[in-house]
Write a structure and sequence with these properties.
Blueprint lengths: L1 E10 L3 H8 L14 E4 L10 E5 L6 E9 L3 E7 L4 E10 L5 E10 L3 H34 L1
Antiparallel strand pairs: 1-7, 2-3, 3-4, 4-5, 5-6, 6-7
Helix pairs in contact: 1-2
Organism: Pseudonocardia charpentierae
Protein name: SRPBCC family protein
InterPro entries: Polyketide_cyclase/dehydratase (IPR019587), START-like_dom_sf (IPR023393)
Length: about 150
């Protein structure tokens, strides 16, 4: 069973600027109230196999493992168990007339995915909206500061 919640947002900033913001996961609490804290297991760019501890209001603290990184374009991480595993994708796509579109997607997989998806649907949608809007605001602010 698979349950997907997704949010896309157009950002008036270069994909490189948005990537710098979204991939600096330890600073997410600065621009979205959906994240209380983030602790990485290593320094430098996000890397496949890295473990990242994410605390969110009203949710249990989870340890995500980075499973894919396409530098400057996307990263994916996952957390959970065999019963239900959450897979978070963060994808940037340049727009023809400038800026980029960021897509944030959370996929619940496993035999308990439907139950977890229904149980957390409202908060997941709310948090993805907050994260997308925060990413847009922070990235556009960073882009303006450079020019």
């Amino acid at each position: 069973m698979t349950v997907v919640v997704q949010r896309s947002i157009d950002i008036d900033a270069p994909a490189s600027t948005v990537w710098a913001v979204v991939s600096d996961v330890e600073r997410w609490p600065e621009w979205t109230a959906s994240i209380s804290s983030v602790k990485r297991s290593q320094t430098g760019p996000l890397a496949v196999g890295e473990r990242v501890v994410v605390a969110q209001p009203r949710l249990p603290t989870l340890t995500y493992t980075v499973t894919e990184v396409d530098e400057g374009r996307s990263f994916t991480w996952s957390a959970g168990s065999a019963v239900s595993r959450g897979v978070g994708e963060h994808v940037l796509a340049p727009r023809i007339n400038g800026g980029c579109t960021a897509t944030l997607r959370l996929t619940q997989r496993g035999p308990g995915a439907r139950f977890v998806g229904v149980l957390l649907d409202r908060i997941t949608r709310r948090y993805l909206r907050m994260e997308a809007e925060g990413l847009k605001a922070r990235s556009e602010r960073e882009a303006r500061a450079v020019h």
